[in-house]
Amino acid sequence: MHDCIKRRLLYACTQAYDPDLETWRRGVGWQGRPESVTRDVEFWRVPIDRALVGRVAEGVVVAFRGSLPPFGRTAADGWAVLFDWLNDGFSICRRDPDYAGTSVHWGFAESMRRLWHDTPDGSPGIATQIERLFADGAPRRLWFTGHSKGGALANLAAFRAAHEPALRDVSIRVLTVAAARPGDAAFAAAYADTRISCLRYELAFDPVPHLPPGPQTPRWASALLRLVAPGSTPCAQYAPVGHLVSGGAMDASWLRSWLGRVGGLAGAAVRDPEGLLAAALTAHGIGPHSGYDRLICHGERDCSHGHRADMAPRRHESEPLRSPRRDVRAGGGTATPVPQPGKRRALRG
Fold first, then answer.
1. For residues 83 and 27, what is the distance between their CA atoms, to the nearest angstrom?
2. HSE-up of 191 (CA within 13 Å, CB side)?
């Protein structure tokens, strides 16, 4: 197992899609099997929300599943996929007292409400699972992580935890991968005023981190949204949170070349819609050898792996040396930190 906590949080994001998915050489380092908190959408009894809560050597990790893919090995039925995507699309900003009265994504807030609290029949929610692990002696450090929709939920959960009186002595850290935006500019400002240390990883031409749209949404992402959902218009409300670590332009060079050949986004939608979908899925993936797999830790020249800068990370004997393919760094050698308003904090193990 690699020591770097950021790599292991990436693996936890993957495992959240399928709790039995932990694989050799990509272990999270769970101390015991993590608890799976799963919730149904009300009235329809269709499961659309999941988080894994477990203990690692450094503390407690909570990993949120992203949106259910319409294909793959998640064993989700068509109704679950449909309701999950409808939940994502319910992007009305609502003022919510659980988030200091700021406005957040309605669908994501409902998912977090279901996951955070215990159910009427006694099934423990995330808050209860965290309390149990700390009561059992876990170090009082808390990590939230998630991919796509799961990244937005990780930010909402961290905000809740930062305002829990029982957790006021707990350090709270967040790592999101291709996260959707959880709330408006007021939420982003309130988030920056907390003690949360957050890194958000984004790759060029991955559309999901720019959704729901806001003033920072690039024109190409807004155009893609209009192609997928005709009549949609960017609102001026949603804003990202955390310190951005982005992949460089080299990861997107193939996509620019392909779009140039097919006549841009509009041309791709007409001439090669399957290729357009494949390009979006490729940019958004987190599996082995994906852009995010190359970016997180491996593509960051200054990653300390949770150790002092003069200490090399240990490697488990089952962790292979990097192959030439994995030595291809995101951004052509290094990750590019992009300064953001507010506080910048390093994520430490």
1. 31
2. 31
DSSP 99: G
Q: SS3 breakdown of the chain: % helix, strand, coil, rounded to 5? A: 35, 15, 45
Q: Is 243 in contact with 336 (CB distance < 8 Å)?
A: no
Length of the chain equals: 349
Measure the CA–CA gap between 241 and 145, rounded to whole angstroms: 13
pTM: 0.76
> What's the one-letter identity of residue 20?
D
Could you report the average pLDDT of every consecutive run of 10 residues in the chain (349 residues)?
Answer: 82 91 80 94 80 97 89 61 69 85 90 96 96 97 96 98 96 96 93 96 84 63 55 61 78 55 52 54 79 87 63 40 35 45 49
d(CA 231, CA 265): 16
Task: Tell me the two tokens of residue 38.
Answer: 């799963």
Q: How far apart are CA 42 and CA 31, in angstroms?
A: 33
